[in-house]
Amino acid sequence: MLKTLNFQDMRKKILGMVDHRVRIITAGMGLDELRAAMRGDPPTEKPNPRFKVHTTSFIFHIRPRYYEAGSTILTHTFRLGFFTAFFFFVELFTGLILMVYYTPSPEKAYESILLLMNNVPFGKLLRDLHRIGAEGMVIFTFLHMMRTYFTGSYKKERSFTWLTGLVLLGLTMLLSFSGYLLPWDQLAYWAVTVGTSMVEAAPVFGEQANLILRGAPDIGANGLLRFYLLHVVATPLAAIWVISIHYYKVSREHGISLPASIEEGDVSAEKKRVAKQRIDFIPDLLSHEVFLTCLGLFLLVLAVTLGGYSAPLESVANPQVTPMDTEAPWYFWWLQGMLKLGDKTIMGIIIPTILVAVLVALPYIDRNPYRRLVKRPVAVAVGILAMLTLVMLSYMGLPQWGIEANPATRIVQDMMPEEGQGPVREIPYDQLQAGAYEVGVTPGTRMCPNLDFGCPELEGVFAEYSRRVAEAEQIGVITDIQALMVIEDWQQDLKKITLRMVYTDSEDGERKTYERHIFRHRERVME
Amino acid sequence: MTAETSLDQKKLAVNRREFLNIAWLASLGFFTISLTGVSYLFALPRFREGEFGGVINVGKVSELPETGSSPVNYPEVKLWVSNTEGGVMALYKVCTHLGCLYNWREQEGKFVCPCHGSQFQADGEYIKGPAPRSLDRFVVQAVDPSTQQVIAESTDGSPLPVPDNPDAEIRVDTGKRIQGIPHG
Lengths: 527, 184
Description:
The complex is a heterodimer of chains A (527) and B (184).
Chain A: H1 7-25, H2 31-39, H3 49-56, H4 58-61, E1 66-68, H5 74-77, H6 80-98, H7 109-118, H8 123-150, H9 159-180, H10 186-200, H11 206-214, H12 221-254, H13 260-264, H14 269-276, E2 278-280, H15 281-304, H16 333-341, H17 344-365, H18 377-397, H19 407-415, H20 423-426, E3 435-438, H21 456-475, E4 478-491, E5 494-505, E6 511-521
Antiparallel strand pairs in A: 1-2, 3-4, 4-5, 5-6
Helix pairs in contact in A: 6-8, 7-8, 8-9, 9-12, 9-17, 10-11, 16-17, 16-18, 19-21
Chain B: H1 2-12, H2 16-43, E1 55-60, E2 72-74, E3 79-84, E4 87-92, E5 103-105, E6 110-112, E7 119-120, E8 126-128, E9 137-143, E10 150-154, E11 169-178
Antiparallel strand pairs in B: 1-11, 2-3, 3-4, 5-6, 6-7, 7-8, 9-10, 9-11
């Protein structure tokens, strides 16, 4: 009886059972193997159980078993593709959670964003993360494409992957743009109006496409619903599909390219051998990816908390009033810049179409078999030129460029924009001492002797206002400027701030007035 | 001899397998085309009369603003009714540049767009700015109130001379937009 109670046996038996369970959960790795992998030891069994995971587990099935050492060099890929995917997943998760509080109707949409920002614990954090993730995804998709271009990785067997990447660039921009409308504020409404107006410029189908997109001649309940569905169903599904193809090509077919200097440079056979050495996915690459994910999440959270990044929200959308300086999202500025250069159809549709066609056909146009930068001077020159052009066009797309605005309107708009923040709104409430301050008359220092600590911010803004007025006087489009800043106690805890400019228009010599006012409430923190 | 030629003829003609292949490919193509058409028709938004996109009654002739006075805003249907020297015009409220809503500047007597500063006259004629063409107009009709018949119509976007009948109704067909003339 006692003989059968062998503790050694029992321990072995239990360990065996645990090991079996662990093998099932990890899809192939036992306890000892797991421990060895954690410690970075070589595999404990043959055949390599770390490879078995790649055939049995779904998640790891789509990941490669190993990378070639040369392709993991940081300065070769900068992990740009990884971070693009990372941002996509950040968007997916934060987006799904945000959907809990969001209603896609003109009556409810703005309200639900306000609720999310002011009344839902971590609601603002999630919204900010979703927004910064969207910007990040657009930036990283573009950088990833640039990297692929300059390392010549789109050539030969990777040409189809390049094509799917281009589709993904388009989908990323569409994802970002379709999400733009959802908060239903002035920024959203008019940016999307301007954006869809570009679609309308297309010949033949432009007007129809615009109608289908907006759900009516102008954006309303139908348009919001359509953009919502586009944003949460259609584009993400398409993106998941194309990302799968894109990634499958990379992981199963051709892998990440080796640096050109190793592949075709004058390097020793030994160096080539080292570059081709395999680095197993488990554990090295997996732990690296976990590290990158943590780093990315940490930086994102840092940016939206201590970094002060917050998703903008303007006043509720008003289809009857267009605010000044309406512009498309920044990744369409280049298009806006082009639209300023000439005809809507040529600049807005035909040239971008040619551009896309050139990008699609790039692997077939560029027959140069080499990948090293020194061996493809034309491609490098074209690439750099294209980037410079893009930056320049984007700059030209800014509302301040190439558009004649009345200097008085410009100054007031810059100091106290119709929508958004601006210097005047940033003056602390307590420094808003009632009074009429006139540029050139009121002394710019010690403006508030009655306040204990003075009003340095108010003085700063007033100095900026004075400087801008003096500048305008010098340029001479408007002259004899009498510029006023009036602060009034309007109600308890409510101040009215007026900027008024009376000037002589040098065009017709008439005396004209431009003024604008805003109200500031003591308790108002949102914006 | 005869058997051989008939066999050759058979070879030239489409055999059963080929025919079936072509038939199902063709039906697949037809299905795709019809699916596209159906989706297009499904996605195309609907309008109701009186809503934007339909025909809108902007009032009787006697209710029109005085000739040469400031244009009248119809915000819910996105148009300005302008009574110029030449007659009544219905201007589409959207700037021809990038779709912002321009405003009437009483002091300066012209339309100015807040987005990019394009300027237009009361009759929609381009003055300056990045807009590629003059303002778009709608088809304007004058309708006899009793018979509901169209007395006068301006289909090319030119001003509609005001009819003598003060009770005649002025209607704007917002479904028919005429593009403004591009400037040089």
